[in-house]
Amino acid sequence: MNLKTINNPFGKVISVSGMEIIIEVDNKLKISNLEQELVIDGEHKNLYVGTVGDIFVIGGPSTSDSIHFGIFEEVKLVSESEKLPTSKAIVSAKVIGYQNPNSKNILQFKRGIGHYPKFNSFCYLLTTEEKQELFSLHEEGLNIGTVPGITKETVSIHINKFLSKHSVILGSTGSGKSYTVASILQKVQRELPFSHIIFFDLHDEYSSAFLPERINKVCADKFHLPYWLLNFEEFQSIFLGDIDYSKNNEEFRALREQFINLKEEAYESLKTHVGKIDKININAPLYFSIDKLIKNLERLNKQTYWKSDGADAINEETGEFLANSGSSKVDRDGKGKDQILQGQYFNKLLQIIEKLKSIYQDRRYQFLFRAEDDCSLYLVDYMTELLSIRNSENQTQLTILDFSKIPSEITPIIIGMISRLCFEYKLWESDPKELPIYLVFEEAHNYIPKENSPLTNLSKKYIGRIAKEGRKYGISQLIISQRPSDLSTTIVSQCSNFFILRVTNPDDQSFIQHVLPDHLSALSTMIPFFENGEVLVAGECIVIPTKVKIDYPDPLPNSSDVNFKEIWKKPLSDYEVLQTIKQWWDVKQNE
Fold first, then answer.
1. Please, how many CA atoms are within 13 Å of residue 465, restricted to the half-sphere of its CB?
2. DSSP states of 84-112
3. Across all residues in the chain, what is the average pLDDT?
4. Residue 386 · residue 418 · CB < 8 Å
5. Model pLDDT for residues 109-157, shown as the tens digit of each residue
């Protein structure tokens, strides 16, 4: 392998300390302000020593030695002697990898060190073409942007290592995070026309960034999630909220019993279609009637019975339970005297019944209840739509779930639950490799935060499980946040790919320094000064950690700032406060 600059090293290694090296720059280059003017293949080229984050080659004293790759961290002048005014240019750099010894004719980066550069090793700049060759992934690559600066090398990510590994995109508000997400996913869609992506969109920003015919957008007012898909823990979180389980043990026992009884009852009508289930699991996604659940609990709450045989004590005329007779005996329709006793749950279920009714009647929770969802087999249609499983003619690639009108107090539970449904579907799939699924979590700090809380326990539990086990079942995730320091470090630590935009908050910067590899310290210190759309890309999906100017998405997401200057120059026209109030009240529009 012949480097274009093999006859023109810019300096040599004078110190090696682990991954850190120091290079003394050739004195001629110091005089020319570290600009190397060369004639390469008949063309004049200007190359620059010491551009922070730029990659270069570390060779041996002879060209037959192994080659390493380094990135520039710092350039400075140091005095050669206290008595002399002369100085020399010194470059601090980190070794980030080495040349694949099996690739003799092309540049090919390999991670790690293996062995260290030798003292006095010569160092060489790379031309734009050589960097392009180094960044290139050929058929595995997905071009996402260019290296900002004087030369504009195209940067690719390894598409399979991006999708099959967990990734994170972090950046302050206004740093270009939304258009980075949109740009990358647009390119994935174009490259992979039969993708299966589920996007949790908390503010309805992203549907405008994709072709309507290629997405399955579930609008906030159309979103539905049948209550019977909730497992028992999720059902308690949504319907019962902060009830203290330890102090209401009887209530939860009654609820569990009814859960199982009603699922077994509904299964009887399903048995001929699906086959035999030996034992119904309380968490199995089987239909049960919420109306029956409430009625049964109300009945248990009022239940009395005859002491002699345990039969319900019912008034034959009204159908209501007879009142408890205490220690007295009363007439029992031709059966002599008998005592009426209170049932096990008598007057103990009022709180749980009121909680269930409250959610059932709350218009904000109507997405849980739809008449057409009253059959367990509806789960087939639901998962088909959610996972974008269609025939080739109507194939959508991306399901966008608009949560902009879902109550914020249960959004984490809903996101966690849908994540669980996807994971458990993959868990039970006969061949997990047949249908890979990619989950995209926007504003993830809202439901996988660093701190624990009852509101986010379920979402952290399920998304955390995907982070730990998802890859072996063909389900991976992209975590997006503008508040990195508020994210669960346990979940972020499972990510293999990092896309870091401008971050200015000191706590967020500290978090990013913590999760990024040590050898990226020079690049990470530049993060607060990134322009909009500039991203530090690192991890398994890219050959070499690189600062990238992401290609502009087309079309754009709906995430631009409001133009106060233009709007406030003109008077309002045709603006009705009543219209907004009606939407607030949820007044139905005329058909």
1. 16
2. ---EEEEEEEEEEEEE-TT-SSS--EEES
3. 87
4. yes
5. 888 776 788 888 999 999 988 888 877 766 678 999 998 875 667 889 9
Handedness of CA 172, 185, 226, 428 (dihedral sign): negative
3-state class (DSSP) for residue 121: coil
- What backbone phi and psi angles, to 5 degrees, belong to 16? -130, 125
Res. 554: pLDDT tops 60: yes
How far from chain centre, in Å, is Cα 227?
A: 24
Give the whole-angstrom CA distance, residue 337 versus residue 287: 43
Residue type for 519, please? H
Q: Which residues pair with 549 in a beta bridge?
A: 146, 534
Which DSSP helix (H) or strand (E) runs through 35?
strand 35-40
Q: Would you state the structure tokens that stand for residue 123, as one six-digit string?
A: 């160092």
Q: What is the pLDDT of residues 520-553, one digit of tens each?
A: 776 788 899 999 999 999 999 998 888 899 999 9
Handedness of CA 143, 144, 145, 147 (dihedral sign): negative
- Measured over the CA atoms of residue 299, residue 301, residue 302 and residue 307, the dihedral's sign is positive
What does the pLDDT read at residue 342? 92
Question: What tokens appear for 262 in the block?
Answer: 């009603």
pTM for the structure as a whole: 0.85
